Amino acid sequence: MPTPVLDCRDLRKRFGSRTAVDGVSFSVAAGETYGLLGPNGAGKTTTISMICGLLGRDGGEVVVDGRPIDVGSTDAKAAIGYVPQDLAIYPDLSARENLRFFGRLQRLSGRVLETRVGEVLELIALSERADDRTSEFSGGMKRRLNIGIGLLHRPRLLVLDEPTVGVDPQSRNAILSSVADLGSEGLAILYTTHYMEEAERLCDRIGIIDEGRIRAEGTRRELVGLIGEKDRVTLVAGGSLGPAARALASVERVQEATATDGRIELVVEEARSLLPRILQEAAAAGAVVRSVEVVEPDLEAVFLHLTGKALRD
Amino acid sequence: MTALTIARVNLLRMLRDRTGLFFVFLLPVILIVVLGTIYGGRVAPRLGIVAGDRGPLAMDLEAALRSGDLRLEILEVPTATELRDRVERGVLEVGLVIPTGYDVTLRTGGTATITILGQQASLLSALREGVAAAVAEQSARIRAARLAAQRGDATFDTALITAGDIQGTLPGVSVTVATAGERLFPESAGAFTLGAQSQLILFMFLTSMTAATQLILTRQLGVSRRMLSTPTSVATILAGETLGRFAVAMVQGLFIVVLSAAVFGVDWGDTIAAGLLIVAFALVGTGVAMVIGSFANNADQAGTVGVFAGMVLGALGGAMVPIEVFGEPLRTIAYITPHAWAIAGLREVAMRGGGVAQVLPQLGVLTALGVVLLALGAWGLRRALTRG
């Protein structure tokens, strides 16, 4: 694995008698999107606050781009682009003024600052509203500006804390697409969410966090594999279903194949990649397939398995 | 430089707030004008005259009132009823009714009755007495002229002229009126000086309280924490937020000083001494704003506490009613407020010609209070920013 952009080890934080973060460790490489998936109160924001140097920690270490981070370590923070869950923008300033202000705080100035402000306004599709006060913006526009501020200084690590909370579906989709594009451009991204679908769609690796601890970590496939669940494929078909089911049962990675009431039910590994072969074998065995349904085990099931509770509890 | 960037945004936000602009720039001007009118906006007190007679004696009395030491502004009023109404409403300080046939009555040996109207207030009472004295003086001349005419020494008119000529040279009882104690307001105080001084202090403090609300909003929006995620130290953020609030207070203060001097002719006295007092009071306002902005839980709470503190301290400290009219216990108590110290300093500089040396006590108290409040506010904001 290449040198990680973010490396945090054994992070610990207590608030009075309550342990908010209890030994969290993970790393994020360049170009990788790492998701911290957990319910509200799981310790995601506290973890992020320690990573961004907003909050002192009781134990552990955070290294970003090779430099240790703490509340007082100002220079090292230049490598981080922080996008908080709150809309941390001035409502009485325009989008351009907000970008300029935070750009100056990121030590940009002069032509470089103006160029970057223009580029970011293009990126977040707010060029035409750049000089309007943000109090006049829709929720989605404010969210885009919130993200744009985090990208202004070309950080090595982008930290997004639940960036789609309270956003309409259309804006949410646009934000997720933008984040996916940023990941593909080589930016290391730490993304916290309690939406399973977002973690599945965006993240190369996911850490499932609950009660201040990382319960499991890996790719979506690896996490699903932890609980031993397989994909389920249902073929609605006519013709010779019995012979078709027997033929399919002999296909590699098909673990079960049962014919019942005009359907063939299959339990398989990695259904998406195997689907063309399944359809081909079924047709060859005399089944006429009319429709296909694929059900993959999701992270909700993994979370339930690991913590004994639903993700949205 | 980063601290200046943060301070500049604070100032910009203040100027963007249209409601705030009314309170910062318009309301103080209105109040200065109102208070200037109440506490000496006019050059002379106004005397209303109902002239029922236009004869020489009536004109002579009016001329005596115009040229006397009272320096009255004399206005003609058509009827006695209207005169009474205007005096009752305070539009006129004193009223005088010269009856119809005043001249003829006096020339023929009759008694003319002049009515003088005035309110009960002590200052107006003195004015009323002054008008009565002018009437009495004319009465003395008329009696002398009437006596001379009866004895056949001269005609009434000739004797009246002679009496007028020699009246000032005759020996008599000299009455000197002296003011006991310190003058309430120095003679050098311009019409708008009191109002400008009190509104400067009142509004610098109130505007600082508005800045406290802005600080809360910055925290609530998460902007403060976002600043902390940038390569900006906590100390720089604290310095920027403090400078911002200080700049807001100073803009308010300088606006009132410059406008009152340019438009209303207010003389603020020694520039350095007055400037230092304003800076010291701005420090106090900034300190209170930082404390409220750091410890209040939300903007509503900060707004309520800030306005309450501003009004109560302003009233107690003499920023609404001059401290000079307070009774003794309250006048002493007033000095628990920074307002009273600041106003006392400004009075010393503007009205008694004081310099820095004369206002060192006020400067010392205000600066010490400002430093303590700033330290407390900075500690509170640091805690709020970094406790998570």
Proportion of residues in extended strands of chain A: 25-35%
Shape of chain B: elongated
Please indicate the percent range of residues of chain B in DSSP E strands (runs of 2 or more).
Answer: under 5%
Order of helices and strands of chain B: HHEHEHEHEHHHHHHHHHH
Main beta-sheet annotation of chain B: 4 strands, mixed
Question: Which consecutive residue ranges of chain A, at least 5 long each, have pLDDT under 50?
Answer: none
Quaternary structure annotation: heterodimer
**Largest chain interface and its two residue counts?**
A-B, 36 and 26 residues
Provide the spatial order of strands within the biggest beta sheet of chain A: 6-7-8-3-9-10
| Secondary structure category of chain B | mainly alpha
Determine the fraction of residues in helical runs of chain A and give it as a percent range.
25-40%
Structure classification of chain A: alpha/beta
Radius of gyration of chain B: 30 Å
How many strands appear in the DSSP assignment of chain B? 4
Q: What is the number of strand segments of chain A?
A: 14
In total, the number of domains of chain B comes to 2
pLDDT averaged residue by residue of chain A: 88
